Amino acid sequence: YISGILKKKVEVLAEACTDLLSHQKQLTVGLPPEPREKTITAPLPPEKLTKLIYEACGQDISIAVLTQEIIVYLAMYVRSQPSLFAEMLRLRIGLIIQVMATELARSLNCSGEEASESLMNLSPFDMKNLLHHILSGKEFGVERSMRPLDSSTSSPAISIHEVGHTGAT
């Protein structure tokens, strides 16, 4: 959240975007319909890309920062596991974020608002893990716990893990 207020940008964002485009993927940021959802079909300079993301996300600075984070993680996966993207022509980041929040709401049996807050509070490791499970279609589990953030408050923390396969042998 603080990153959004300070209009921070991810340093490798333009490179990540270029990696996705070089793998023949179009990107959209923001939510449909257009003109709010913006399509990226060619590499953009970092400042222009960041501006486009903030415009597409409207007043929601948290979503703008999360969008940047998701683009970087998608680029990591397209480089290391291109088969995850075999049937995808367009990566709609806003809809990916919606699916992530919906899956958290389902798994945690909570409201969409609570799930969105949980999504924003995921550690980078759990964010990448959730994204990978959604892209791969693998089953995943979510655990909720209380983790102290500082000496005066606690916030519910969640962790994403792969569901183990059990069966008769």
TrEMBL record:
Keywords: Calmodulin-binding, Carbohydrate metabolism, Cell membrane, Glycogen metabolism, Lipoprotein, Membrane, Prenylation. It is found in: Cell membrane. Pathway: Glycan biosynthesis; glycogen metabolism. GO terms for cellular component: phosphorylase kinase complex; plasma membrane. It is a lipid-anchor. InterPro entries: GH15-like, PHK_A/B_su. GO terms for biological process: glycogen metabolic process. GO terms for molecular function: calmodulin binding. It comes from the Eukaryota. Residues 3-94 form the GH15-like domain. Belongs to the phosphorylase b kinase regulatory chain family. Phosphorylase b kinase catalyzes the phosphorylation of serine in certain substrates, including troponin I. This is Phosphorylase b kinase regulatory subunit. It comes from Micrurus spixii (Amazon coral snake).
